[in-house]
Amino acid sequence: MLSAINPIAFELGPLSVRWYGIIIASAILIGYLIAQRESVKKGYKEDTLIDIIVWAVIIAIICARIYYVAFEWSYYKAHPAEIPMIMNGGIAIHGGLIGAFSTGFILAKRKNLSFFQLADIVAPSIILAQAIGRWGNFMNQEAHGGEVSRTFLEQLMLPEWIINQMNVGGTYYHPTFLYESLWSLTGFVMLLLVRKHLRIGQTFLLYAIWYSIGRFFVEGLRTDSLMLTEHLRIAQVISIVIITVAVITWLYRAYRYRLPKYGDVNVALKGSNDETYK
């Protein structure tokens, strides 16, 4: 049997660079490059998106950590020195999304830009980054599900290196990181295929619905969930809230505004503050 993958990619003196950090950084970079290309294609200046994304990423990381620490406060109140040690893991994607989209909304309004069009541009990139980022959990042997047999994993036709990495302390576990990664990757392809046919804002809302459905079911398999109560998983509650808000927003916007299709809008040809861009 192969040994587990070392979560540390390399060391620079006293500094240990972990695969988790490399994968998360790579996911952000790849997502940005795809979104940047699309934003320029839609008529935005080259520096428009980067100005927003830099702040969104910084605030997202901070919020993701705060969110995680808040729901694990029973541990961190006894180990306060570990609160800033984000390099060891311990961030919550929902906290990051709240921080990122709140920042994007505020900056878009300050720049007199359409938040929903910008959100449509970055939505496929975000879900792709989430698909890639889950492999950081794989490297850390975390965010897995309950116990399974090796035979079960072999029946999934997984390669040996994945099966072996799901062996933690002599016990095999559900590769929930993989389930969510594949769900998100499927969502990325879907959003790219349908985006030009959807109305402004609907790509972003479809992303929120799609991701939340997958997260709700995958979360039910995990053993390390942040808990709201003894039996209530926070991520599942938040997923239901997001789905509900997204559906209501979709219906309201469709009723309230005459929204153009994403594929018909180019800010170089028409001002992004027009009523139809709301």
From TrEMBL:
Its EC number is 2.5.1.145. A 1,2-diacyl-sn-glycero-3-phospho-(1'-sn-glycerol) binds at residue 134. InterPro entries: Lgt. It is found in: Cell membrane. Pathway: Protein modification; lipoprotein biosynthesis (diacylglyceryl transfer). The chain crosses the membrane at residues 17-36, 48-71, 91-108, 115-133, 176-194, 201-218, 234-252. This is Phosphatidylglycerol--prolipoprotein diacylglyceryl transferase.
